Amino acid sequence: MIGKEKPVLAVLCGDDQAGDLTGSPAMQGIESTALVRYTGAAGLADALRDADVLFVYDFLSRAVPDAWHAANRLRWLHIASAGVDPVMFPAMRDSDVVLTNSRGVFDDSIAEYVLGVVLSFAKDLHGSLDLQRERRWQHRETERIAGREVLIVGTGPIGRAIARMLRAAGMRVAGAGRRARTGDPDFGTVHASAALAEHLPAYDYVVAVAPLTEQTKGLFDAAAFAAMKPSARFVNVGRGELVVTGDLIEALRSGAIAGAALDVFDTEPLPADSPLWTMPRVLISPHMSGDFLGWRDTLIELFADNFHRWRTGTPLRNVVDKQLGYVPSE
């Protein structure tokens, strides 16, 4: 127990998100046991003064570093996403504040998205839609996905869910992570990300789902795209900053790779003048690959469960290793 005094909880949310929280039975339960301060970015510093806990519900916000000076009593920060890069700055990393994330919420939904875009490429579904709009009856042959080789860069829970789903569809899957190994239950072989370029030529699909760290930022650059098969498709459901966007655009223009499905970008929303919007072999979605019906409620319920654990001294779920930048695998 943390004592009889009500703890102070600061909740960072956008103006259009407050209703998700105040209407949630899970948050209403917390409000009966804590002093809750809902705030946008502009009021975060004031909300953080004497706060014990910060719930970053607006997980795309970059407001936490600028308000951190006011966090004079903070003991725990929870972010409503699997990625923690928006709150992973030096002062946070070096502090005693415990960091948890929402690992596990989006795994299967993102895996379904990846299977969907793989099928869209293989079966030319976007081409069929274009022809339908033109009322053109044009017979084509399409590809099989069974037996195709896939490299999943990122071996955490989301990567594992993707591996299991693609393997079930008949694809041959391998992973890339910090440490090379064989005999992995989901990936079989895992290559070292540090040697990524030497393994890329073997794969028909490359899926980026690694967490954003100093080691993975810009991992997919001109050299990486040049190493891929000209027939390879690239899928990014991790973080936009994993990719050097200009290098990806040039790889698509030159035919170094055959296509890309992109759910995340280094600038979001994707600027209207980006060439990616109109490239013929590019599928774009607005950072929504994990967002299934009811996902907001699930995020709030996960936090509420962790808040109860924190109040009762039970070990928290999804504790992030702040030096690694993610929750270590068990």
Automatic annotation (TrEMBL):
<dbReference type="InterPro" id="IPR006140">
    <property type="entry name" value="D-isomer_DH_NAD-bd"/>
</dbReference>
<keyword id="KW-0520">NAD</keyword>
<dbReference type="Pfam" id="PF00389">
    <property type="entry name" value="2-Hacid_dh"/>
</dbReference>
<dbReference type="InterPro" id="IPR029753">
    <property type="entry name" value="D-isomer_DH_CS"/>
</dbReference>
<dbReference type="InterPro" id="IPR006139">
    <property type="entry name" value="D-isomer_2_OHA_DH_cat_dom"/>
</dbReference>
<keyword id="KW-0560">Oxidoreductase</keyword>
<dbReference type="Pfam" id="PF02826">
    <property type="entry name" value="2-Hacid_dh_C"/>
</dbReference>
<dbReference type="InterPro" id="IPR036291">
    <property type="entry name" value="NAD(P)-bd_dom_sf"/>
</dbReference>
<feature type="domain" description="D-isomer specific 2-hydroxyacid dehydrogenase NAD-binding">
    <location>
        <begin position="116"/>
        <end position="289"/>
    </location>
</feature>
<comment type="similarity">
    <text>Belongs to the D-isomer specific 2-hydroxyacid dehydrogenase family.</text>
</comment>
<protein>
    <submittedName>
        <fullName>Phosphoglycerate dehydrogenase-like enzyme</fullName>
    </submittedName>
</protein>
<feature type="domain" description="D-isomer specific 2-hydroxyacid dehydrogenase catalytic">
    <location>
        <begin position="44"/>
        <end position="318"/>
    </location>
</feature>
